[in-house]
Amino acid sequence: MCKPQIIEKKEFLIEDKVVDVTDFSKRHPGGGIIRFMIGTEATDSFNAFHTRSTRAKNMLTMLPSRKATAQDLKKFQVEESADLLKDFEAFRQQLKEEGYYEPSYTHIASRILELVAMHIFGGYVFLHFWGTNPFLSFVGLVVLGIAQGRCGWFMHEGGHGSLTGNLNYDWNIQRFFYGFGCGMSARWWRIQHNKHHATPQKLKHDADLETLPLVAFCKEVAEKARNPLEKFMVSYQNLLWLPVICLLVATGWTMFLHPRCIIRKKEWTEAAWIGLRYAVVAYLNQYYLGWGMGTACYFFYVWVGSTYIFTNFAVSHTHLPTVAKDTHVNWVTYASHHTMNVSHNPFVNWWMAYLNFQIEHHLFPSMPQYRFPQIAPRVKALLAKHGHPYLYTSYTQAMKITFNNLESVGHIIG
What we know:
single chain; mainly alpha; Flavocytochrome B2, Chain A, domain 1
């Protein structure tokens, strides 16, 4: 007689209840990210990802659960950080009551108008001076490339639901600005980026660390480089980052990973916006630029946009310590130890779309990002109260640290 198969329960702790997600984990609307929370204290993660979702809170109450015992609290490592997490949750509720999560439609409109204006200006200068003044035409193309990158910043807020606060509206905004503006899939981005937010710098969890064969941000990933191409790319990654790597990443995304996701997930709205983008490019090549030069200009434009956004992303995380794949770190510790803030001044705030406040963003991912300068002093005080760092440096120093890290990691196999 065959012995009955014993299925190990998949549980996590939310507030004072142990929640059983053994069956639910397979049909979680947010995808496989839920498995990263199994075996952990997941209150802050749940609250951060479902700030505005009544449906998620209703679904939570329907799942099998039980009152946590003292043994459970020890198992889920609550006691050692209980005071910190209690203070943080009270702080989060206070910020909500003070209106920091409320959207600003004026701010949203200004962001959209900026993107429209940059595209009109860049496109006009590029095409108007095409064939007569190469330098000014080049300037127009650079402006278009930066505008493309800034579409990436804007869609990022839509993906987090931090624009209007209505996920349906925000995700459609994201689909347009990421699809038409960047040629990429919003659905793919949300799947990968949520993993990053749940476990930044955690090996085998944070998708932003799984970067071979093109780059390795830490020694644990660099040591996995096996074939000659991987070893070459990693060995010289500090030199190849600006001229080659960012463009290759963007090309791999747009030509393979994102289309595959769109087809698998049947995201036909995204496909339509991306198709419109390429239709515009084809029209310009056919009637203005010629296919050879037009293709070259397009890849240069993609290079500008991808280098702008990927480099600014890299300064906030990639050089910081990693977390072992079997180690649990609480939500606040992830933000304070594994993310870093960069120059809090008006230009960098604009240039990085307030993601220079990376600590605040990881603590409150669904808060409108322009609010971060207002809450930063209070975040710093909360972390200091509990003996946690508030990592901060200048923009120039952040770039230096980032490229030094690329070089030192490359030397591991160089």
